[in-house]
Amino acid sequence: MIHRIHELVWGPWLLVLFLGIGIIYTVKSGFFQIRRLPYWWKMTIGSIREEELEEEGAVTKFQTACTALAATIGTGNIVGVATALTAGGPGALFWMWVSAAIGMMTGYAETMLGIRYRYRDKKGKWICGPMVYLERGMHMPWLGMLYSFFCVMVSLGMGSMVQSNSIAETFQYTFGSRPEVVGVILTGIVFLVIFGGIGRIAMVSERLVPISAGIYMLFSMVVIMSCYDQIPAIFASIFHDALKPGAAVSGAAGYGISKSLQYGMSRGVFSNEAGLGSMAVLHGAAEETTPEQQGMWAMFEVFFDTILICTMTALVILCMTGGDAAGSGYDGAALTAYCFSKRLGGLGEYLVSAAMMLFAFATIIAWYYLGRQASGYLAERLKEHGHFLLLSRILRGKAYTFLYLGAVFLGCVARLETVWELSDIWNGLMALPNIAALIFLMKEVTFPKGKEGEIQTEKI
Fold first, then answer.
1. What is the 3-class SS of the chain, one letter each residue?
2. Nearest 5°: phi and psi at 267?
3. CA-CA to 437 of 20 to 30 Å: which in 217, 291, 323, 391?
4. Residue 409 pLDDT level (bands cut at 50, 70, 90)
5. What pLDDT, on the 0 to 100 scale, is given for residue 248?
6. Which of 70, 368, 73, 419 lies closest to 191, judged by CA?
């Protein structure tokens, strides 16, 4: 039954919604992500040094971007890419690029709306995300509560249990460690990070994400450049497989292009999370910013996650398999590890294991913040309405934190096939209220204007 519900929720119709809203915003912006690439690059990565001038202790724009990247860069960049190439062929990478280009504007829109409608709670902390603009923008608080519920469920499943399970399995496979021992150590480390609040989560993400992603990219480039003579042929096969003439109407060839489009698009969406609303939550803590500035940081995250990290993984696999990932006899993480080890020996296998563990840990701490924001919002709304007071108490304060830590430990020692599918279902359902808001609040989304593209709104 769960499997059938999963197929229904993540059917082609949801993929059409994701891509449709991205295309609409791309056209509305005048292809801003392409036409103004030098500008938004300068306003994001190019502005990091300027953030040193901001108030000490404040969460910077770069820190929120790293936290958002921590939530999106994960096993999907290793396992998801390998699966897409195995099932969809080299052309799947082209369609991942397309989904990322479109998703950049979806990420911009949801993040901008989040900053525009955010507010401070009684303790002075920012409350931000789709639940806020669903309530204050669309004036539908019940939709905001529904989004929050789905977000909490995803945080306890996909955000904690699934990620900790991948860490435990990797340790067990690589080092022979017992899952119970890994669970205790991992839960303790997560405890030390998340009890420092968003400030410590942002600080850890700011250090962990650039280092782990940088090391992974460095070794990926070593493998790719060792096969530099194959690169032109690899890119030719990517475009040929994705766009071969007559493929859509020519029997088996038509099946091939549909598979490359299906897997490329879907894995791109799963990897960068544009459309789920998670970026809007994670960017909410940034101080001294504007909606447009944070929107451009969201664009950069989609670009970095899919265009850079996923592309490097794909090129390593295609170079080492001669462009035929399906013929290697491997799939998922095993395929990626095989390709790295083929060029780097045992170091390659350890590299993939280390990357998966670091990416998964970063996802755990980022999704705690996501779930904490959603649970706090939901608890306050339940309390206001006088319903489910016991549930409201559980969701408030440290109760959710200990529930999350319990999920981290349980993920290390449990089998998670059912939890994975349930979390995927919650993930899909979480996207629906957010996409509805992106449609109905479209007029609220603006883009940098002026001769030089100056941001004309005041910092908030």
1. CHHHHHHHHCCHHHHHHHHHHHHHHHHHCCCHHHHCHHHHHHHCHHHCHHHHHCCCCCCCHHHHHHHHHHHHCCHHHCHHHHHHHHHHCCHHHHHHHHHHHHHHHHHHHHHHHHHHHCEECCCCCEECCHHHHHHHCCCCHHHHHHHHHHHHHHHHHHHHHHHHHHHHHHHHHHHCCCHHHHHHHHHHHHHHHHCCHHHHHHHHHHHHHHHHHHHHHHHHHHHHHCCHHHHHHHHHHHHHHHHCCCHHHCCHHHHHHHHHHHHHHHHHHHHHCCCCCHHHHHCCCCCCCCHHHHHHHHHHHHHHHHHHHHHHHHHHHHHHCCCCCHHHCCCHHHHHHHHHHHHHCHHHHHHHHHHHHHHHHHHHHHHHHHHHHHHHHHHHHHHHHCCCHHHHHHHCCHHHHHHHHHHHHHHHHCCCHHHHHHHHHHHHHHHHHHHHHHHHCHHHCCCCCCCCCCCCCCCC
2. -70, -30
3. 391
4. very high
5. 36
6. 368
pLDDT of residue 388: 61
Burial of 384 (0-12, 13-18, 19+ CB in 10 A): exposed
> Tokens at residue 200, please?
């410590």
Rounded-to-integer distance, Cα 158 and Cα 273, Å: 13
Total-model pTM: 0.83
Could you read off the pLDDT of 29-48 as tens digits, one per residue?
889 988 888 888 888 877 66
In the prediction, which pLDDT does 53 show? 41
Confidence of residue 112 (pLDDT cuts 50, 70, 90): very high
Look up tokens 């999106």; give the residue: 72
Angstrom distance (rounded) from CA 117 to CA 37: 26
Q: Compute the radius of gyration of the chain from its Cα atoms.
A: 21
Contact 419, 163 (CB under 8 A): no
Residue 185, token pair as written in the block? 């150590």
Higher pLDDT, residue 80 or 232: 232
Which pair of tokens denotes residue 149? Answer: 């519920």
